[in-house]
Specification:
Blueprint lengths: L5 H23 L7 H17 L23 E3 L8 E3 L2 H12 L10 E7 L2 E8 L2 E7 L5 E3 L2 H4 L16 E9 L2 H13 L8 H9 L4 H5 L4 E11 L6 H10 L10 E3 L2 H13 L8 E8 L2 H7 L9 E5 L4 E13 L5 E12 L2 E7 L3 H7 L6 E7 L3 E7 L41 H12 L11 H9 L14 H5 L6 H14 L1 E3 H7 L7 H11 L2 H6 L2 H5 L6 H12 L1 H12 L3 E3 L13 E5 L7 H10 L3 E2 L9 E4 L5 H9 L2 E3 L1 H10 L1
Parallel strand pairs: 2-11, 17-18, 19-20, 19-21, 21-22
Antiparallel strand pairs: 1-6, 3-9, 3-10, 4-5, 4-7, 7-8, 10-11, 12-13, 12-15, 13-14, 15-16
Helix pairs in contact: 1-2, 12-13, 16-17
């Protein structure tokens, strides 16, 4: 295994420190210092260094946040100190009664002040650090025994794997895992578009994400954490809750300090509660109340806890944001993948300070489960303070003889008969020329994460599709300024701006091009992975389902989706039209020469010294190529335990077969 030069070792450490700092600024402080593109360049540079010199990889490297095979189950984790849940107060009178009970437990002349912070509606979590390194993370469970979710939590970029400064020898902190409202909304939109599960609220989404058996699945969720309390601490002590939180923030842990406040009495607590409630809409994450804690930690210890609730803290909840209104009708919208989604059209009503006139109903199963009928009075809330949601029908107010609602059997946009794939709950329009699908595909194609085409809004796309100037994304590149200037509200300057943006978009990356095609289950992260593995759009178009399944992050369902996309003649024509129009993704960086240059390896079976992914990286770091299957050009097959059909095929084709030890000897001698 090659030994890295000292300058590259120093560069790797510098990159690790820099990336950790940028993660902290972005995920904890909400104050990024560099652009996403600049961050990606730093990350890729570190990946390349670690790929060339595997000895540079450290367990706490930012590149190691995602990894490992999925678990069969979570191991139990016993908390050193019980994780308690909070008692609730629903109004000021209940808060005052809590304070009265608190004061009855302490001397009359003892000073009590309060530390107040927003109550995030997320999933409770404990983080355990030893000598500044994250060693464990666990859910609350029953308060005594939770689930060990360490591998999943390591994927959350806001969680420091190494603490800054001088941390205690052992530090247990408690916090809340949550999602920002905008991230939650985007996740649901993407899931709905792909026919995947949608979440009722950010809390359910955060809790479900923490309990994914595959850490890679957790990594794809936009999770954050805010630390708000302590468990067992060895090697440090703090006099107050406020000073403890400031100390945790100084160690690099994300907290709610910016929105917390030290309050002298209940009058100040009420002012804080009212202020947070009034500004609730502007807070980027969902809160359902404020948490009031005794600030003095010695006093917290003195008053102790009941069976499951601390006597020194309480959650003062905000009233639920709900309203009743009339379900006037149900309209069916058609997405870019042909998914037919029912949407409730409501008599507009104000919910949480926002007028709501519509809400997605997701699918027929959800309509049936909630027994929703056109003409019903329904209860509306805003999931995550963002997405309008129909909670239930008010059956006692239902007019007689309202029939149950049934989804239409034909596409409302083109009239094609809807079909429902086995195992799916969402019907789809099979007509790829359906104007609603065409519009959706074009809007997706132009998104910032895809081809990044400025000046192409929804109303303009409507006109282009209705007037049949554009029938697929590739047709965009045939538009001229003259054609565009003839459209409604399209001046010559605007037309030229769009033409210029289209021309700029031709210079793109392979990952963006793959993502822009809108293949089901292929988001931007997987598109980047496919680009790195295959290197060209042509190879992706021709890869078999079996070859695709050999690639990182690709399972049978995704492989079938990709293969099905390119088996469709119309889709292949669009890709060829894009290439003919001059869309040429930048070729992948040339592979650096090394002692194994000229060799191509296929790995099969179970290796003992390392995973197959690690073995591939090792071969590539020495200049070799790797392939998912045995094809012309493969020079060596490395066979581990339980090698299957690839071993037989290698013997049949006369390809050199070596074992793991022989492979490592090749690497060492090269």
């Amino acid at each position: 295994m090659p030994t890295p030069p000292e300058d590259l070792r120093r560069r790797a450490e510098e990159l690790r420190r820099g990336i950790r700092d940028h993660d902290h600024r972005y995920y904890v402080q909400d104050a990024p210092k560099i652009t996403d593109a600049a961050y990606d360049r730093l990350f890729r540079e570190l990946e390349e260094l670690e790929k060339r010199f595997p000895t540079l990889v450290t367990p706490d490297s930012p590149t190691q946040r995602v990894g490992g095979a999925p678990a069969d189950k979570f191991e139990p984790y016993t908390h050193a100190e019980m994780m308690l849940s909070l008692e609730n107060a629903l109004d000021f009178q209940e808060l005052a009664a809590w304070e009265e009970r608190l004061r009855s437990l302490i001397a009359p002349d003892r000073t009590v002040t309060y530390w107040c912070e927003p109550k995030l509606d997320g999933a409770a979590l404990e983080l355990v650090y030893e000598k500044g390194k994250l060693v464990a993370a666990a859910t609350r469970g029953d308060g005594t025994i939770g689930e060990n979710v360490t591998r999943n939590v390591r994927t959350i970029r806001g969680v420091p794997l190494i603490l800054a400064g001088m941390p205690p020898s052992r530090l247990e902190v408690r916090g809340e895992v949550y999602m920002n409202k905008a991230d939650f909304k985007r996740l649901n939109e993407e899931n709905e578009e792909q026919g995947l599960k949608v979440f009722a609220n950010p809390r359910n989404s955060a809790a479900g994400s923490l309990r994914q058996l595959d850490p890679a699945a957790t990594a794809k969720r936009p999770l954050r954490i805010a630390v708000h309390g302590l468990g067992r601490v060895e090697g440090a002590s703090y006099p107050t809750q406020e000073k403890a939180m400031r100390a945790l923030a100084a160690l690099g842990l994300p907290t709610s300090l910016a929105r917390a406040r030290h309050c002298r009495d209940l009058a100040a607590v009420k002012a804080y509660y009212d202020e947070m409630g009034e500004g609730r809409e502007a807070i980027p994450f969902e809160i359902d109340g404020v948490v009031v804690k005794v600030n003095e930690l010695e006093l917290q210890r003195d008053v102790g806890a009941r069976a499951r609730n601390p006597r020194w803290a309480i959650a003062w909840k905000y009233p639920p944001r709900e309203a009743e209104t009339l379900l006037e009708r149900i309209e069916v919208q058609v997405g870019r993948t042909g998914a037919l989604t029912p949407v409730a059209v409501l008599t507009p009503v104000r919910v949480g300070g926002v007028m709501v006139g519509s809400a997605t109903l997701h699918n027929q199963d959800m309509i049936d489960e909630k027994d929703l009928r056109v003409g019903d009075t329904v209860v509306i809330t805003r999931a995550g303070d963002v997405i309008p949601e129909v909670v239930r029908s008010v059956v006692e107010k239902r007019p007689p003889d309202l029939p149950p609602y049934r989804m239409p059997e034909i596409c409302p946009a083109c009239g094609a008969k809807a079909v429902k794939a086995e195992g799916e709950v969402i019907p789809r329009c099979p007509n790829i020329s359906c104007p609603a699908q065409v519009k959706g595909r074009i809007l997706h194609f132009s998104r910032r994460e895809a081809m990044d085409i400025d000046h192409l809004g929804e109303k303009l796309v409507d006109q282009l599709v209705v007037k049949e100037l554009v029938k697929d994304p590739a047709d965009l590149y045939s538009l001229s300024a003259e054609k565009l200037a003839s459209l409604d509200r399209m001046a010559k300057k605007s037309a030229q701006n769009l033409v210029d943006a289209l021309e700029r978009s031709k210079k793109t990356t392979l990952a963006r091009l793959i993502h822009s095609l809108g293949i089901r289950h292929v988001g931007d992260a997987l598109a980047a992975s496919l680009a790195g593995s295959l290197g060209s759009i042509e190879k992706l178009m021709e890869a078999t389902a079996g070859e695709l399944e050999e690639l990182k992050d690709v399972g049978p369902e995704v492989a079938a989706s990709i293969r099905g996309f390119f088996d469709n003649a119309a889709n292949r024509r669009v890709v060829l039209k894009l290439l003919e129009a001059g869309v040429r993704p930048a070729p992948p960086s040339p592979r650096k020469a090394g002692p194994l240059t000229g060799m191509t390896f296929v790995f099969t079976g179970e290796l003992s010294a390392m995973s197959r992914t690690k073995a591939k990286s090792l071969a590539e770091s020495r200049g070799a190529k790797t392939a998912p299957t045995i094809t012309r050009g493969v020079t060596h097959v490395v066979a581990g335990e339980k090698a299957g059909s690839k071993l037989k095929k290698a013997h049949d084709l006369g390809v050199t077969v070596i074992d793991e030890e022989a492979f490592l000897e090749l690497v060492r001698s090269g």
